[in-house]
From TrEMBL:
Protein name as it appears in the record: Leucyl aminopeptidase family protein
Keywords: Aminopeptidase, Hydrolase, Manganese, Protease
GO MF terms, alphabetically ordered: aminopeptidase activity
Domain Cytosol aminopeptidase residues, every copy: 316-323
Domain of life: Bacteria
Protein family: Belongs to the peptidase M17 family.
PANTHER family with a match to the protein in the record: LEUCINE AMINOPEPTIDASE-RELATED, PEPTIDASE B
Gene3D superfamilies: Leucine Aminopeptidase, subunit E, domain 1, Zn peptidases
A family per Pfam: Peptidase_M17_N_1
Biological classification of the source: Bacteria, Pseudomonadati, Pseudomonadota, Alphaproteobacteria, Acetobacterales
Length: 475
């Protein structure tokens, strides 16, 4: 599938028809008047406009043109690019410009508008309705905010694609098509080579008629010197998860096309890093599999020897994501990266603890965890740290193997999943594990119902900080 062209952005300025949105705050009524005029403000107030965050009203403008007022958070509130997603939903067709206070980043306007304009549909017949277009400069159309939107929309497309149209081979093909034009060396591993190199992953994926794939991509920025940091990204790409022999109930399968959301997130992040040509070295690994029920699917109490040499007993075939990640994490550590990050839709326990909007973050290094927390707060892209509590490590014991893939107690499932993965990461390796939902259950401005990539903006900011490219920015 192609990277989005962002048809919602327009560089052509049709001055005769160009309309303006004035983004204003509830506490600054005099500013509303200065921008839109007293008659327009009076009209807006008669319609119930109080500049509530995200509230939008159309009002008469000069020369018979329409203009709009949009409510913003107060200045001391956290930044919120998604508030501008409402413009793409509710403005009428035409070219629009958005005026914001000086403390609001222009990139937030562009990113929020583009994410609000995102749609996924496989409907046939008829032309899609024309929507509003945000007028930007040619430089902005090529800039970071627009590229961030393209990468996120690409990941949303992947997650939203039905599983019959996106299996392991198709996901691998999409990764290759997205990264090779940006200069990445991309290898797709399959068959006997995959079975030998990634035995845990193979034990999951070989249960499906759609054979597993591993994507291995390597890239260096054009300005990356010998001492440039090496960042390694790993993503869980379970294109559909039936649960295997420990089969999910029908309701539990309804969203399982999204179980490759971790792979989509790190693929989009890699695409963004490469498109921005950050001065780093990057490795990407995607484990592309389907967890199926068949005569050759993995069974409860199977024992498999991992790439790391540890033997793993299969306590539950529905705990397959950690098996997919383990061999990839071990291989990634062989390159001794400066930072190793994996993203996965791994546990329902993380959602019980934190809900759909807060990805759980696990980290074996406090200073690294603080770096992620600061980036998440700055970007208004929340991540919430949970502990790798070693007191629960014994819950993963097996009577016949080095590890069981599921804990012996029905508690702390997100933590024990992280502890399982930690066995495949070197103790001195800076490592972050993110357990994400990768889905919006309902539509909100900038976040339509369907696949999504929470945490990607925070991750990108961390990578920029590691290579020193975060510019001086307003807090």
């Amino acid at each position: 599938m192609p990277i989005h062209d962002l048809d919602c952005l327009s560089v052509a300025r049709r001055r005769k028809t160009l309309c303006t949105v004035h983004a204003v705050r509830a506490s600054e009524r005099e500013t509303w008047v200065a921008l839109a005029g007293e008659p327009a403000v009076t009209f807006a107030e008669s319609c119930g406009f109080v500049a509530r965050v995200g509230q939008l009203v159309l009002v008469p403008g000069p020369e018979g043109k329409v203009q709009a007022l949009l409510g913003l958070p107060e200045q001391e509130a956290p930044r919120d690019p998604f508030v501008f997603g409402r413009l793409a939903l509710d403005l009428p067709e035409g070219d629009w410009t958005v005026q914001v206070p000086k403390d609001v980043a222009r990139d937030d306007v562009i990113l929020g508008f583009c994410l609000g304009a995102y749609r996924y549909s496989l409907k046939t017949g008829g032309s899609p309705a024309e929507g509003p277009r945000l007028v930007v400069t040619a430089a902005e159309r090529k800039g970071l905010a627009a590229q961030m939107a393209r990468s996120i929309c690409f990941a949303r497309d992947l997650i939203n694609t039905p599983a019959n149209l996106l299996g392991p081979s198709e996901l691998a093909r999409e990764a290759k098509a997205a990264l090779r034009p940006l200069g990445a060396e991309v290898e797709v591993i399959k068959g006997a080579a995959l079975d030998e190199a990634y035995p845990l992953l193979a034990h999951v994926g070989n249960g499906s008629e759609r054979a597993p794939r591993v994507v291995l991509a390597r890239w260096s920025g054009t300005h990356a010197g010998k001492d440039a940091p090496l960042i390694s990204l790993v993503g869980k790409g379970v294109c559909f998860d039936s649960g295997g022999y420990d089969i999910k109930p029908s309701g539990g399968m309804l969203r399982m096309k999204k179980d490759m959301g971790g792979a989509a997130t790190v693929l989009a992040l890699a695409h963004l890093v490469m498109a921005q040509d950050l001065p780093i070295k990057l490795e990407l690994r995607l484990g592309c599999v389907e967890n199926s029920v068949s005569g050759h699917a993995m069974r409860p109490l199977d024992v498999i020897r991992s790439r790391a040499g540890l033997t793993v007993e299969i306590g539950n075939t529905d705990a397959e994501g950690r098996l997919v990640l383990s061999d990839l994490l071990h291989e990634a550590g062989e390159s001794q990266p400066d930072l190793l990050v994996d993203v996965a839709t791994l546990t329902g326990a993380a959602r019980v603890a934190l809900g759909p909007d807060l990805p759980a973050l696990f980290c074996n290094n406090d200073s690294t965890a603080m770096l992620f927390a600061e980036a998440a707060e700055y970007e208004a892209d929340p991540l919430w740290r949970l502990p790798l509590w070693q007191g629960y490590a014994g819950w993963l014991k097996s009577p016949v193997a080095d590890l069981n893939n599921i804990a012996s107690r029905p508690m702390a499932g997100a933590i024990t999943a992280g502890l399982f993965l930690e066995h495949f990461v070197k103790p001195d390796q800076r490592w972050v594990h993110i357990d994400s939902y990768a889905w919006n259950d309902s539509s909100r401005p900038g976040r339509p119902e369907g696949g999504d990539t929470p945490g990607i903006r925070a991750l990108f900011r961390v990578i920029r900080s590691l290579c020193g490219t975060n510019r001086a920015e307003k807090s």
